[in-house]
Amino acid sequence: MAIRRALKTDISSIRRVAMAAYDKYIYNLYVKDEIDLAFDKFSPYDLKMFVATNENLKIVAFGAVGRSMFMNNVFELRLAATHPKHINNGYYRQITETRLEYIKNASKGLGALVQVSTKIPQVYEGFIDVFTNNLGYHCLQKII
Ligand SMILES: CC(C)(COP(=O)(O)OP(=O)(O)OC[C@H]1O[C@@H](n2cnc3c(N)ncnc32)[C@H](O)[C@@H]1OP(=O)(O)O)[C@@H](O)C(=O)NCCC(=O)NCCS
To answer: How many A from CA of 110 to the centre of ligand 1?
Structure first.
């Protein structure tokens, strides 16, 4: 497994993983647009994309980090997915570790607030569970 920043040429592979991982409704509702935003240099959102590759250098998972436009050093762990053929191999956990490392570096040691909305809070060690919405998503926060 290797994790790296996504290149513009990775966009079709990321879409392929996302289409397999999310149901069609959710993919069309917001996933597709958010992937596009990560590669749109004119987008007002600061969204960075990471990809995980397998031993054949094929992209099998991805995850994004968003940075608040309004408050310094406030970050969100955004979309992340693993292709269903490659789940339970630690890709999501490793991409999440890489995203947290990225945030630590980007906040230049000044401290950062990291937020995530997730249905699997157990992956996020040390995060505080702030609330759970009525769709079952936990809003978690951590200072790093
Ligand atoms: C959820 C998802 C990202 C997991 O990817 P993955 O690469 O298989 O995850 P990992 O192998 O890194 O597993 C991470 C941990 O989460 C657990 N986990 C993974 N999917 C889970 C699920 N659906 N429910 C509960 N726990 C789950 C694993 O057991 C593992 O725990 P462990 O390390 O203690 O064994 C993947 O199934 C997916 O893309 N789902 C659809 C998209 C999605 O829901 N993304 C947002 C997640 S909030």
So the answer is: 30
